[in-house]
Amino acid sequence: MDIDNRIIVLSAPSGTGKTTIVKTLMEKHSDLYFSVSTTTRKKRENEKDGVDYYFVSEDEFKKMVDNNDFIEWAVVHSNYYGTTKKEIERIINKGYCILDIDVQGLKNLIEIYPGLKSIFILPPSIYELEKRLRNRGGMDEENIKLRLNNAKNEMKMIYLYKYFVINDNLDNAVKRIEEIIYEK
Ligand code: ADP
Ligand code: 5GP
User: Fold this and answer.
1) Domain limits of the chain?
2) Whose CA is nearest to atom 3 of ligand 2?
3) Is the pTM value of this prediction over 0.85?
4) Ligand 1 mean position, distance from CA 13 (Å)
5) H or E segment to which residue 80 belongs
6) Which CATH number fits domain 3-182: 3.40.50.2300, 3.20.20.20, 3.40.50.720, 3.40.50.300?
7) d(CA 125, CA 102)
């Protein structure tokens, strides 16, 4: 199978449930490998360095940009995020490579892997998205507003994606994404 077919980009407005979906997928399939991004965002309480993200300072991130370490990088919700070439090299020959990146990242990766599979995960409604963001906790009001506002802009870009999946019922969403990943 060619490499492009094994690159799966998952995007979703923050709070949709993408992390929950990715965790479920990883637990079920040993041939899926999560591409751990590098970020300057503050670590959340339940996150582990090197597992959820590689957490770095802004200075370190900028040095990595200058070193040409990233295959793609972007500013999202006022923080830097990027996928290193090293991370892709670590996993690309092992199995399917799952990237949790935003639309800017997708645009850059399509240039390198035009045949990649891109999936946009949608919340059932904006009201449900707000509820999930609030239930998850760990964010002040300003941050919640920023993410909801960004969600509306991100959803304008869904035409760039090959597949759409609504995360209403978690099991159904996971099942549909499995079908997309493993279809020939
Ligand atoms: P994201 O990674 O997209 O920002 P999370 O996976 O952190 O989102 O999920 C945000 C919140 O929504 C979490 O509290 C999670 O438990 C909850 N959640 C995820 N999927 C569903 C679902 N299908 N129905 C209801 N709640 C969900
Ligand atoms: P969060 O801070 O909620 O974990 O992620 C915020 C946003 O950053 C999400 O939309 C996520 O897809 C995006 N993101 C995470 N890592 C990367 C990355 O390496 N590159 C790009 N372009 N976006 C990323």
Assistant:
1) 3-182
2) 14
3) yes
4) 11
5) strand 79-84
6) 3.40.50.300
7) 19
Ligand closest to Cα of 106 equals 2
Centre of ligand 2 to C-alpha 113, Å, is 19
Centre of ligand 2 from the C-alpha of residue 1, in Å? 27
Length of the chain in terms of residues written: 184
What the block records as the tokens of 34 is 């999560």
Cα(31) to centroid of ligand 2, in Å?
22
Burial class (CB in 10 A: 0-12, 13-18, 19+), 165: buried
Protein residue closest via CA to atom 15 of ligand 1: 17
- The residue whose CB lies within 8 Å of the most ligand 1 atoms, and thus the one to mutate among 132, 136, 154, is 132
CA atoms within 13 A on the CB side of 85: 8
Question: Tell me, what DSSP letter sits at residue 7?
Answer: E
Mind listing the pLDDT tens digit of every residue in the chain (184 residues)? 688 889 999 999 999 999 999 999 999 999 999 999 999 999 988 899 999 999 999 999 999 999 999 999 999 878 999 999 999 999 998 999 999 999 999 999 999 999 999 999 999 999 999 999 999 888 889 989 999 999 999 999 999 999 999 999 999 999 999 999 999 7
